[in-house]
Write a structure and sequence with these properties.
Blueprint lengths: L2 E5 L3 H13 L3 E5 L2 H10 L4 E5 L1 E2 L2 E2 L4 H5 L6 E6 L4 H9 L4 E4 L4 H20 L17 H14 L5 E4 L6 H10 L8 E5 L8 H6 E2 L11 E2 L1 H4 L4 E5 L6 H13 L1 E2 L8 E2 L3 E6 L3 H6 L5 H7 L2 E4 L10 H16 L5 E2 L1 H9 L5 H16 L4 E2 L6 H14 L18 H24 L3 H8 L3 H11 L2
Parallel strand pairs: 1-2, 1-3, 3-6, 6-7, 8-15, 8-16, 9-12, 12-15, 17-18
Antiparallel strand pairs: 4-5, 10-11, 13-14
Helix pairs in contact: 6-7, 13-15, 16-17, 17-18
Length: about 475
């Protein structure tokens, strides 16, 4: 018996679909909004989720990833009253099993469920026993990272070309290395090609190699990177930067595994596996003619997206501890404790530079702490503290917990409550601001956006 979750604000439709599913011998639960659905999924596991697009508290398409990354990793069937080609594309790209339009007969709506359950049963039946994945410096066990690690394991046991996508600093090269290390090619070379650093005049020589005398300055033969990767893995870092003129030549090599070094009269072969990575949108580049569509098709035989750090904040503490131990060993000092405020601040920051930025922030904090045995807020880089402080003021949660700053009693007048709340917020903000700038009034005005006279008035009124 399978367990199905139906997420739709149309209660009559929910109950009808629920009845049909139960009539098939399965168990079904209804949720009438996204918040209810997420709450239910935290308490129970499901095999399939029927998810409506337009819900009272949000768009179902935006939560596909979160639902699929839950513990039971259910298949997601998107339902919509009004079909949208862009919505269908977004749903499939985010891993939805199917995208179906309402109104439709219940029998037509049940067919995707039958197929999804058949697939799930087959997947469970052929599930191989767990194998220890060599993951090196890839830290974290949050739901998004577990999905990513599962994809790394799948990519490792095949010889397909892999395209790794993700923002700057997410660890794309670490993932590529993990794929190589866990593959049958692990005993051979892992050759990195930095496509962004390839000169258009030397790109062919770098990739294909050249014979002595092939061009001015070629005083000896050179083995290209493609041949160096023979038997191993060729990692194309920032493949979106590969010169357009070179893309056609590389596509041929990718298809035939044969190429001719510059100045040579004969072709040579190389048995290499390609893993590519990019932080750019190659689909958009293809649409405007900046990247070859035929090369993109070959590169994304296996697509492996890496989640940004802001979507897996549960991993921040583990990443910090791992890198802190390494940094402290390099400095020859003992590891340090993390104050709750230090950790909470890091979890509140959006990390546009992802793990790389987090590690840099950790190193700067340790340098600032020197021989202190605990890291406090003051040890963090100024830019991070200022960003988090400003966001707290904007959201009205300067105490860091999002609770009302003062207690409302039956005797409180609105004006008294308002004035007291403003005073609490102002004292907290001004205190943090002046600590941050070291009592530098000019810098405080720049950060706060207040005039000098207005800042003095507020300090006189609220700051001790």
């Amino acid at each position: 018996m399978a367990k199905i979750l139906i997420v739709d604000d149309d209660r009559i439709f929910c109950e009808s679909l629920n009845y049909k599913i139960r009539d098939m011998g399965h168990d079904a639960v209804c949720a009438y909004g996204l918040k209810d659905a997420i709450k239910i999924m935290k308490k129970d596991e499901f095999d399939v989720v029927y998810l409506d697009v337009r819900l009272p508290d949000g768009n179902g398409l935006s939560r596909i990833g979160e639902i699929k990354n839950s513990v039971s990793a259910p298949e997601v069937i998107i339902m919509t009253g009004q079909g949208d080609p862009d919505g269908a594309e977004l749903a499939i790209k985010n891993g939805a099993w199917d995208y179906i339009q309402k109104p439709s007969s219940l029998n037509k709506m049940i067919l995707p469920l039958v197929r999804a359950l058949e697939y799930r049963e087959m997947k469970m039946a052929r599930k191989a026993p767990p194998v220890a994945l060599r993951r090196e410096d890839i830290i974290g066990n949050s739901p998004p990272m577990r999905v990513c690690l599962d994809q790394i394991a799948k990519a490792s046991v095949s010889d397909l070309t892999v395209l790794i996508t993700g923002e700057t600093g997410t660890g794309k090269e670490l993932v590529a290395w993990a794929i190589h290390q866990n593959s049958a090619r692990a005993d051979h070379d892992f050759v990195v090609v930095d496509c962004a650093a390839l000169s258009e005049t030397l790109v062919e020589s770098s990739l294909f190699g050249h014979e002595k005398g092939a061009f001015t300055g070629a005083d000896r033969s050179h083995t290209g990177l493609i041949k160096q990767a023979d038997g191993g893995t060729l990692f194309l870092d920032e493949v979106g930067e590969l010169p357009f003129a070179m893309q056609k030549s590389f596509l041929r090599v990718l298809q035939t595994r044969r190429f001719r070094p510059l100045g040579s009269k004969r072709e040579i072969t190389s048995d290499f596996r390609v893993v590519a990575a990019t932080n750019r949108d190659l689909d958009k580049m293809t649409a405007v003619g900046h990247f070859r569509s035929d090369l993109l098709y070959r590169l994304q035989s296996f697509h492996l997206p890496i989640p940004p750090l802001r979507e897996r904040t549960e991993d921040i503490e583990a990443i910090l501890m791992f890198h802190m131990d390494k940094i402290c060993r390099n400095y020859g000092v003992g590891s340090k404790l993390l104050s709750p405020e230090f950790l909470e601040c890091l979890k509140s920051y959006p990390w546009p530079g992802n793990v790389r930025e987090l590690v840099n922030a950790m190193e700067m904090s340790l340098a600032s702490a020197k021989y202190d045995n605990m890291l406090f807020l003051k040890h963090l880089p100024t830019a991070i503290r200022v960003h988090v402080a400003r966001e707290k003021v904007r959201s009205g949660s300067v105490d860091g917990m999002g609770e009302p700053p003062v207690e409302v009693t039956n005797q409180a007048r609105w004006k008294d409550y308002r004035d007291e709340a403003i005073a609490v917020i102002a004292r907290k903000y001004l205190g943090d601001l002046m600590v941050e700038v070291g009592d530098n009034i000019g810098e405080a005005c720049k950060i706060s956006g207040l005039s000098r006279s207005r800042l003095y008035d507020l300090l006189k009124k609220y700051h001790d």
